Amino acid sequence: MNPKIVLVEDEEILRENLKEILEINNFEVSDFSNGNQVLEYLKSNKTSLIISDLMMPEMDGHRLLQQIRSNEWTKDIPFILLSAKIEQDDRDKSFALGADQYLIKPIKTVDLIKSIKSILKD
Questions:
Q1: CATH number of the domain bearing residue 9
Q2: Residue 22: which residues within 8 A CB-CB, separation 6 or more?
Q3: In what order do the strands lie in the sheet containing 4-8?
Q4: Can you give the residue range of the structural domain that contains 55?
Q5: Model's pTM, two decimal places?
Q6: Residue 86 scores a pLDDT above 90
Q7: Buried-state track 66-104, b at ≥16 Cβ within 10 A, e below 16
Q8: How many domains does the structure of the chain reveal?
Q9: Burial tier of 29 (Cβ tally within 10 Å: 0-12, 13-18, 19+)
Q10: Model confidence over 16-66: pLDDT tens digits?
Q11: CA 57, CA 44: separation in Å to the nearest integer?
């Protein structure tokens, strides 16, 4: 069974591209445009990993991460944040909130897949 990944990205073209990359690499992907949709989805579905954009309307990646980590049923799901923000403060906050990885956009496919495999191997 292939690992299941939840992908959260508000930019449709980028979301579709990332989904295609992940599926080509044998991951099952459920994709969403905002964090609220993910929280609803996780009430009745399991996932191996969450990959989320940081800057999104409605609920940003940090808020989604906080919600995931504060819920007994989802707190152990590995979480990768993707962001165009390169400031150290954003990285520090992400890791303090419980992110497993913080990757800077644009992300190389090889780096994304390597990060995912590394996290899922643990």
A1: 3.40.50.2300
A2: 5, 7, 29, 116
A3: 28-32, 4-8, 49-53, 79-83, 101-104
A4: 4-121
A5: 0.96
A6: no
A7: ebbeeeeebeebbbbbbbeeeeeebbebbeebbbbbbbe
A8: 1
A9: buried
A10: 999 999 999 999 999 999 999 999 999 999 999 999 999 998 899 999 999
A11: 24
